[in-house]
Amino acid sequence: MFFRRLKERKLKTAWSVSNTKHTSCLVGTAHFFPYSFRSSLKEILADADYALFEGPLDQMHMEQAADSGVVETSDMDLFGALGDSALKEILNVFLPSGTRHASFMNFVQTSPDTAIFDMLRKMKPWMAFFTIYTSFLRRKGWKFSVDMEAYTLAQELNKPIAFLETMPEQIEVLESLSIDNIVDFLSRIEQWDNYTRDFTRWYLEGNLKQIYSNRYGFPTRSPYVIDRRDHILFERMQPYLEKGKTAAFVGIPHIPGIVRLLNEEGYQVEPGSD
């Protein structure tokens, strides 16, 4: 409890969404984050009749997604185009903290087909990438997820929950990720510390411009993943917004597009959850 309070911050990525009759709340989430927003999320959900989430977050569906990312054999090698420096950094992600022995690193440089890389090669590219990236975040102490924190609170508060996409739809989105973009981002793994530091600051500030468009080139920032789905998410949340008292939680990169669509439909969107 003390640790959570120590790591808790005030959420600044919430918007009040109103039509002529009703008001709801739109929240931009971070799927992985170093801080908790429990108090802010609880306050938002306390007044909600419905809680909407981007996609299924229960254990069964999470396992379904994980299973879909494993393959018997793969003819795609994400690592063949990477230099020794990037390969070493990827391996470091999976080593216990402080394990950076020069002799071990020399072994990896001459023989990169270790058990770790063998494991990653049995995954589809998107699964291998997220396995590496989430392992990197765990090493940095990123123990929270805004989506999961809100989902758990909604369950605790017995709020009716609906998902805006099915798991097959979300897996289809993951399958669409560009291999070139994944390889490019992996090749720049030495920039990840800077990226996560900047993203943390932008999210805490609610800086949509920097989150939506920045120089780091995160692999999911593509028109198919973001722009196309803005319309899908908006269309599916709209019936709930018409009823009002809805808390809708979607990934923060979707917020600019969804806010634009809300404005076009005559909704009034203001910062804050009131």
Taking pLDDT < 50 over at least 5 consecutive residues as the criterion, the unreliable ranges are none
Distance between the termini: 27 Å
Run of helices and strands: HEEHEHHHHHHEHHHHHEHE
Radius of gyration: 20 Å
Question: Brief overview, please?
Answer:
This protein is an alpha/beta fold and 274 residues long. It has 14 helices and 6 strands.
What can you tell me about this protein's structure?
The protein has 274 residues and is α/β, with parallel strands linked by helices. The chain contains 14 helices and six strands. Strands 4-3-5-2-1-6 form a six-stranded mixed β-sheet, sandwiched between helices. Strand 1 and strand 2 form a beta hairpin. The relative contact order is 0.23. The mean pLDDT is 89.
Spell out the key features of this protein:
alpha/beta; 14 helices; 6 strands; TraB/PrgY/GumN_fam; TraB/GumN family protein
Question: Secondary-structure map with pairings?
Answer:
Blueprint: H1 2-6, E1 14-18, E2 23-29, H2 38-46, E3 50-53, H3 59-68, H4 84-94, H5 102-110, H6 115-121, H7 125-139, H8 146-156, E4 161-163, H9 167-175, H10 179-187, H11 192-205, H12 208-212, H13 227-243, E5 246-251, H14 255-264, E6 268-271
Parallel strand pairs: 2-5, 3-4, 3-5
Antiparallel strand pairs: 1-2, 1-6
Protein name: TraB/GumN family protein
Organism: Desulfomonile tiedjei (strain ATCC 49306 / DSM 6799 / DCB-1)
Pfam family, one: TraB_PrgY_gumN
